[in-house]
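QUALITY CONTROL LOG
STEP: pairwise intake check
CHECKER ROLE: data steward
CRITERIA: each record must contain a sequence immediately followed by its structure tokens, with no blank fields

ENTRY 1 OF 2
RESULT FIELD BELOW
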Amino acid sequence: MADSSRPARPSLGQMRSSSFLQDHQQYKPPIPITQNIGEVLGNQLDEKLAVTNPISPDPEKVTDSGIIHSIFNHQANPLPSGTPRVVATIFYKAAHPVHPHLHPDVPSNVTFGDKLQSPRVPEGSAPTDDMEKIPREPPAPEPEPLDHLYGPFVSQLCLTNFLQILETLPTPYQRMNTSHRCLDRDDQPHVVEVTFSPPPNPEYLPFDDLRKHENIWRFEREWNVEVVLQRESVFRRHKRLAVFDMDSTLIQNEVIDEIAKFIGVEKEVSEITERAMNGELDFSASLKERVGLLKGVPADVFDKLKSVLTISPGARELCRALKVLGYRIAVLSGGFQPLAEWLAEQLGIDHAVANHLEIDPTSQTLTGKLVPGYPIIDATQKRSLLKSIAAENNIPIAQTMAVGDGANDLLMLHAAGLGVAWRAKSKVQLEAPTRLNGESLIEILHLLGLGKQDIKELISEQK
């Protein structure tokens, strides 16, 4: 007989529940449904109407030059006051489009049986673009041109890529703030100014090395742009002296080559000129050699050349704008004094210094020599003249700007507060502090932080 005082033994059926998951669930049980579909939708509509501004304004994030970019959460005033800043001016090379998907050895119109053209070296990427003078190695593969995919301008993705490159440059890592503004137009800009702070630690990456960094060079090739880096300061934006080379800078000609045409020695003189501008020959020695070939040329050749010389695009407008800003302007030329003075009159330039050719007073022809009493305007002399003109006008060297294209301009470019190699020879582009290969000299004003509207007002001021 079973003992009724003992509890009943549990059976397997009693231990079972409706669900194994329900017995072992780790989440809250579902909320019972007490509303119909109309009530649910009505509550959601009321919540949306109640939230008028989901993002509260934060005035601490506003900077003086535009938009803050960061891959991290922005904190209020993360950088101390007075932190150094660097300005990168990005120019889109609209006149030099990169054709997509073309092997460097194959032209676009090649057909079966055609002879392939020689490989080309990108301008500014090697001391020479002559394939006979570089090592017998295949040319480096070109990066994929991205401007034809994302737009022939400084696109948002182009700017984002540049900011990513900046974030990877400092070693060790430093917190960085960046901002940007468009200098020519807001829609599809060709010139964008990017300010970032702090710059890379100079103990790991000096500023001169930053300007020539491989990652920035590759970025330029990929997006078909040029990047000019400058330390931000009041002297970047407010300069007072501008010094220019003449031949192939303010004018599109090489004067000594034009003179050589008169006596049929253009080829010989042009070859020496090209080698001298590339830095392959001593400038003073090569000048004397070229001048010697001009013996017997009539002295009035300079008057005849005035109608032949072509002033570079934007030179007049650039000089006009600089004069309105109160600049002193000088042309320091390895060419010849009569034409330098003529150009100064045309452009409103204050100082003109060049070489003096000796003239035979009897025959009124060139003797093939330089006047002994005047120094040769070579690289050293150009640098000395830059400093002396600045000193005479009480202008700090930081408030000077120099522009040139040849090897004899390099010392001057490095000495100036801003030195620009304008459409320069390959070696000069590699060694100069900054380089530009634009279509108009007026683009140099963007390096001073001037926008399109600013430039328009300056140019129209003196008309």
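ENTRY 2 OF 2
RESULT FIELD BELOW
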Amino acid sequence: MAVTAREAPAIRVGSSQGTWILVTTVLGSSMALLDSTVVNVALPRIGRDFGASLSTLQWTVNAYMVTLAGLILLGGALGDHFGRRKIFVIGVVWFATASLLCGLAPNPGILIGARALQGIGGALLTPGSLALIQASFHPDDRARAVGLWSGCGGIGAAIGPFVGGWLVDGPGWRWVFLLNVPLALLCAPIALRHVPESAGGDGHGRFDALGAALGALALALTTYALIEARSGSPAVPVLGALGVAAGVAFVYVEKHRAYPMMPPDIFASRQFTAVNLVTLCVYAAFGGFFFLTALQLQVVAGYSPLRAGTALLPTTVLMLLFSARSGSLAERIGPRIPLTVGPLLCAVGMLLMTRVGKDASYVVDVLPALLVMGAGMVTLVAPLTATVLASVDTARAGLASGINNAAARAAGLFAVAALPLVTGMGPEAYRSADAFDAAFRRAMPLCAAVLVVGAVLAFATVRRPRAGCPHPECRAHGCVTTPPLEPPRETGASGTGAAT
């Protein structure tokens, strides 16, 4: 029996069914979350096994991000209309199937294609996990359920790089992807048996598939142009221009459709626009940092995949432990100072990372930089989400969170594509410790500069939220590559797909 968004759910957190719902949503979201953190650690081994160029490693990351960032808003809308459990289960099965293809890929082309398919599955299951919690639990228990979900997800994010490194060092990099198959075999049956179906009940039955396709196409073509610019192919500027044209067409379509994926009027809020510009700066720097640092630790510092994955734990652990407290502090003093100080701390952490070279000491060289970086992330991530929600009406809080999450993913996508180009990394740079180290030392100041721009924007534009604005339900957050998604609100909003 389906439950519409207008009916009050009655499932309690402490009940048997409530426990099963949390288990399946945590399993589902962890699949996508783990994939966003563990793959970076496996990149050098993937490149070595395939004899691949640096652009192949970039595409291994970005093929996934293109489809995920481009389609995540549409994924939320499909769940709202066709049934959140149905779309969630389809996403889990799709993601696992694509993961199997990644693990069995005989060449880089198939791996990259399978990664793009993974992103489609992630776009279906990621918004669905939170929407299921919102639709299933009693209003009095919803905040607790979201807290348990985000806390468990944060633990998964914390151990992800460690697990990834252990798998790469042990059975091999293919198991980074194959691990998703048993998780899906647990998740999907539990969802079908224990999670009630729900739908938003909006009734219009229309979806902005054209807008989603144009958005994904714009991301894909511009990313291709940035990654392949080193090749000198005459097709690169043509495809880059087509990517820009697709972006312009996306904006035009969103302005003229009755049910746009990303309604332009939401940007009428100057605060919402400003905080999304800050998001672009912050998560572009983060995306470039974590992509390059995983390579720097292995290619230059000589760390094993396991040691490199473990080395990155402090930032995630700090966020998991202190993000809720940071959010509470920002509620008392306002978001302007945290959103200014946080990026500046992260910038200092990235500059400290330039000390990490050959035979770097973890305690002396790596750990101080990551602790400063983690402190900055703790300071800014929770206030960033709170400011996004506070800048729109309560009914649009889920949509605003979805747009902000997609913007962060797109920013990371472009950073991974552009940084090797602007720092002069050649196709074989990751095979040479000296060449990669030189480019890394040029990249970190660039990432720090982007963070400084974000801090200046925040100081100049962010103001204290109005009284009575919506607050984040995801208080603890451990993902270092994207801000947390917020669930749809009880007012009838349909979350990340509310306005589609």
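INTAKE CHECK: passed for both entries
DESCRIPTIVE NOTE, ENTRY 2: The radius of gyration is 21 Å.
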